[in-house]
Amino acid sequence: MSKLLESYDMNGTQLANRVLMAPMTRSRARDTVPDASTALYYRQRAGAGLIVTEGSQISVEGTGYLFTPGIHTPEQIKGWQAVTKGVHEEGGKIFIQIWHVGRISHVSLQKDGAVPISSVAVPAKGYSCYGYDEQGQPGPVPVSTPRAMTKEDIERVTSDFVTAAKNSMEAGFDGIEIHAANGYLFEQFISASCNTRTDEYGGSTMNRLRFVLDAVDAMSKAIGSCRVGIRLAPYGRLHGMHSFDDEENTWLLLAEKLSERNLAYVHLSDQESLCNIDPTVAAIPKDFVRKFRNAYQGTLVVAGSLTQETAEELVKSGVADLAGFGRPFISNPDLVERFRNNWPLTPFDHATFYGGGDEGYIDYSGYEQTAERALQEN
Ligand SMILES: Cc1cc2nc3c(=O)[nH]c(=O)nc-3n(C[C@H](O)[C@H](O)[C@H](O)COP(=O)(O)O)c2cc1C
């Protein structure tokens, strides 16, 4: 008996199975507005117990990459309404990942060429985002040096997150996932390797957790805590995050604090899949997930380099409640059906992950359609 394919009550949201489609930026939103292709892409993948959309910026200021969708204008909300309608018509559930990239941005992406913001005025050395180069052409550009956020900035960004959460409800989402992983704004505060502030948002572990916890509370108050999920990347090394002294304690204290908040879920992003692309990146230590599990009582999602077998093991052992899959969902829209029937998986193609049009986006067929076509051709 598969536990992975069993239904699951996620704090009141009923999921058909325990397979979660992990958030994946696809950079195909021309004007930052989800379109008909976006709606079809997610509808095709509605067999997941829960879809988490690609990172969607809460404001112009929160943007780090051209062609990523937002959730702060009426046009964007309308675009997302078509997406959620399609997924719901197929019987699926969908959360939107909302993000602010902080210092992983460029002046060309900011209003009136403003400087991006972060916990401190230190750039993520060696990293690029996707903006306009000096010739005004879209492309990878080195991230700009940010300015340190004032207390007023922190309040304003928190309020932008609350507005985005409310917009997400208007767009028909079942909930939101706060992006606090992968070296973006919240991690720039959580990690002592980046945050060297001396006010109440820096220094002690609790001070570094203050911004994210206050933001979680503000959004929970606005839309209900059971609709709020959060993604973390303990031991993450993306975008200039490094190890720091009380690293384990920081993540476990955050687990404890989140445990008190009756959320939809906490989602751990294991960056293991990037270890061979970026040598500075490391996987989450194996025994750490268990420790996190002990500290956090609610629904726990783990994602990163899982196979059907390892995911099954993960949920059967009770270490996680839901298993997240990223890349396999790109090339296997019917991933859950393939698991159910032991059908083979179509390999993914890195070349079409980001940008471009419908190729590599909505042209992957389900296994049955592919098999049918092969029969007709023979
Ligand atoms: C094309 C692509 C885009 C991604 N975009 C995001 C994103 O927007 N937000 C996020 O939290 N993680 C993002 N990720 C990370 C995935 O959610 C996932 O954690 C990662 O792919 C590892 O899972 P996998 O081995 O099942 O692919 C992205 C990964 C890929 C491959």
What does this protein look like?
With 378 residues, the chain is an alpha/beta fold. The protein has one domain (8-377): TIM Barrel. The protein is built from eleven helices and 14 strands. It has helices at 36-44, 74-89, 151-170, 185-190, 205-223, 247-259, 286-295, 308-316, 327-331, 335-341, 367-377; strands spanning 8-10, 13-15, 19-21, 50-57, 94-99, 117-118, 128-132, 138-142, 147-148, 175-180, 228-232, 265-269, 300-303, 322-325. The strands form four sheets. An eight-stranded parallel β-barrel has the order 3-4-5-10-11-12-13-14, surrounded by four helices. The chain has a two-stranded antiparallel sheet with strand order 1-2. Helix 1 (36-44) runs parallel beside helix 2 (74-89). The two termini are 36 Å apart. The site of flavin mononucleotide has 22 residues, from strand 4 and helix 9. Pfam families: Oxidored_FMN. Keywords: Oxidoreductase.
Supply database-style keywords.
TIM Barrel; alpha/beta; 378 residues; 33% helix; two-stranded antiparallel sheet; globular; binds flavin mononucleotide; eight-stranded parallel beta barrel
CATH class: Alpha Beta
Shape: globular
Order of helices and strands: EEEHEHEEEEEHEHHEHEHEHEHHH
Strand order of the largest sheet: 3-4-5-10-11-12-13-14
* Assigned CATH architecture: Alpha-Beta Barrel
Q: Tell me the CATH superfamily.
A: Aldolase class I
Ligands bound to this protein structure = flavin mononucleotide
Number of helices: 11
Average pLDDT, rounded to a whole number, is: 96
Beta-strand proportion:
15-25%
Major β-sheet, in short? 8 strands, parallel, barrel
